Every structure is written in structure tokens, then in C-alpha cells.
Amino acid sequence: MTVDLELSVNGRPYPLSVDTRETLLDTLRERLGLAGAKKGCDHGQCGACTVLVDGRRVTACLTLTVTVDDRPITTVEGLEGPEGLHPLQKAFIEHDAFQCGYCTPGQLCSAAGMLDEAGRGWPSAVTPDVAADRPDLDEAEIRERMSGNLCRCGAYPGIVAAIAEVSR
Question: pLDDT tens across 142-161, in order?
């Protein structure tokens, strides 16, 4: 069964007819040519496919395309603004926060969503003061909040340093 819908990806409308079983990851990569989000595990366990929907982090491999009709979607390709690279992208480069780069798009989208969550005062499992207006994003806090994004190369020290820099 197919459904007609319109996706809003990186500020651009995409009218599509999609199978109701099609994942957002497959739609982005195969239909729209946005190959930034990667197919890692295809089970929602690695975070390589992380994108933002309504500004919130989602694993695109587990999200059905029909569920995001007419909701703003941001992929790594949409993080860059009119002034150039997103601050997280610049910090990842400065802190050498990647090796092979396969997980980097998901890490960047997840970090952008995580910083927004922390900015709204959402606590994590390691937040010492859940009543604080904004959690202090120390290393433990960043690691916990980014724990859904795996890096096979082990670039975590650079990733944490880059996110810490941007959070300040």
C-alpha cells in the first residue's frame, strides 16, 4: 500500500508516494539522494542514522516515513547554515572528532538535538541536580546523553571535547 505525502527535509518540500512500510532512512538515501545518514545496524542500536524530526533525535532506520509527513526533518546536510558550517561541524574538525567518518553524520545530528534538550533543561540519567534550569554538560553528562551513538573507531575523546566546546 502506498501513501502520498510531503516531506519537509532541510527546509525543502518533497512530495512523494511511499510504501507504508518504508523507513525514513531508505526514503532519505534512496529517494532523495541524501546519503549523510548511514545504515549501520538497521536495528536502531548504533545511531549512525540519527536525524532530527521536529528538532528531536530519531533513528531513521526505525522511523516509518509515513509518520513524519509534514514535519520538519533535518539531516546532517541541513545543519550547515548561511554562514557556513554549523558550530558542531567546526568543532568536530578542530577536535579531530572522527576517524573513518561513518558515524559522524549521526553523531552531529545527535549532538545538535542533545544540546537543544540540555538547553531546555531536560535531565539525563547522570544529571546530579534534576531541578537545575540547565544541566552542566561535563564529560559524564555528554557521554551519557550521546550513549546511543556508537563509534567503531573510538573517537569519543574528540567527540566529547567538540560537544563540550560548543556547549560553552
Answer: 999 999 999 999 999 999 99
Break the chain down into helix, strand, coil percent, rounded to 5: 35, 20, 45
The tens digit of pLDDT for each residue in 68-102 reads 999 999 999 999 988 899 999 999 999 999 999 99
Asked if 50 and 149 touch (Cβ cutoff 8 Å), the reply is yes
Report CA-CA distances (Å) from 86 to 19, 50, 108. Answer: 33, 17, 9
Indicate the domain borders of the chain: 2-78, 87-167
Task: Classify domain 2-78 at the CATH topology level.
Answer: Ubiquitin-like (UB roll) (3.10.20)
Instruction: Give the amino acid at 136.
Output: D
At 4, phi and psi to the nearest 5? -90, 135
Indicate the class that CATH gives domain 87-167: mainly alpha
Report helix, strand or coil for 143.
helix
**Integer Cα distance of 2 and 14 in angstroms:** 16
Can you read off the three cell numbers belonging to residue 104?
A: 559522524
Q: Are strands 2-9 and 56-59 parallel, antiparallel or unpaired?
A: unpaired
Question: Taking a C-beta distance cutoff of 8 angstroms, is the pair 44, 61 a contact?
Answer: yes
Contact status, residue 85 vs residue 75, Cβ threshold 8 Å: no
To the question of pTM greater than 0.85 for the whole model, the response is: yes
**CB–CB of 56/15 below 8 Å?**
no
